[in-house]
Amino acid sequence: MVGTSQTELITEPLPCGFLYGTALTIKSVNEIVSEIAPTDIPILIVGESGTGKDAYARLIHRLSMNKEGRFCKINCASFDPAQVSSKLNELKQQPLNSLKGTLYLDNVQELDMFAQRVLLSFLSDHHERDSNDDFPVRIISSICSALEAEVEAGHLRRELYFRLNGACLRLPALRDRIEDVPAFVEYFMNKYSRAFGKQPPLLTGEVFRTLSTCRWSGNTRQLENVIRKMVVLGNAQIAPNDLDVSPAPDFAPAVFTQGISLKSAARAASEKAERELILQALEHTHWNRKRAARELQISYKSLLYKIKQIGVSNGNSGN
Hints:
Layout: H1 16-19, H2 24-36, E1 43-46, H3 53-62, E2 70-75, H4 81-93, E3 101-106, H5 113-129, E4 137-143, H6 147-152, H7 158-164, E5 167-170, H8 181-196, H9 205-213, H10 219-233, H11 262-284, H12 289-296, H13 300-310
Parallel strand pairs: 1-4, 1-5, 2-3, 3-4
């Protein structure tokens, strides 16, 4: 598709050990992936830096209907906004059949208003050209924070938000799946031992406790860097500067039994607002879901998925 250093094709094997785990938080994510990956619904991946957004984008592509097509990544944070607009226009000019595949927009919050307008035009144009009411290009986008907040702050066009957020995949931080740390340690030990042709260092119980109780503000990427350094140096000791926060021996995944965090409250308010907008559109169109999808400026399949998500139903079967 676009031949630049910021676009890429998948050629390496998927890092399965990086994606899967036993924590309930990640199991829930993987259940959602198994449902939405085979569809053509646009997906928004939300997660802190180092939680595996790129890895999940690649996994979704491999499980999608367009898996034989190309995977094109545009890092919106690495390009000048004008360059992003130029590359989207390049894609828009290409024949429809050549665009089969996945377009992954990383750090989509970095798009300026002009680039957002170009992206909307790209999505609308190819949606109209496809007679099957499907996107010939599967759109996956990622962001490190709640995209809803960018909409409320006026940094993101509301119609683009609905286009990109056909389904939202929220990746948990490592501190919220701390029970998966041992599996990650084993995976990264094996990975870098093979890569560097070295024996993995033996971890003492004290080191393992430190790894299992650190808050890991850099998430899995930070843990990976620590394990890689251990393998390279053949030393299982952790240097203090490897950890940017103090270990927390009594740490457990944060669960608030009283009150609610500001971020959670904002997310709940945004989800409530989205639910109300969908219900209003459905009522206005007398539950004609295709008309409602057009009013909301999202695909029909995206609307069906959202209706299922918010758990609303109606006796009418209007399409």
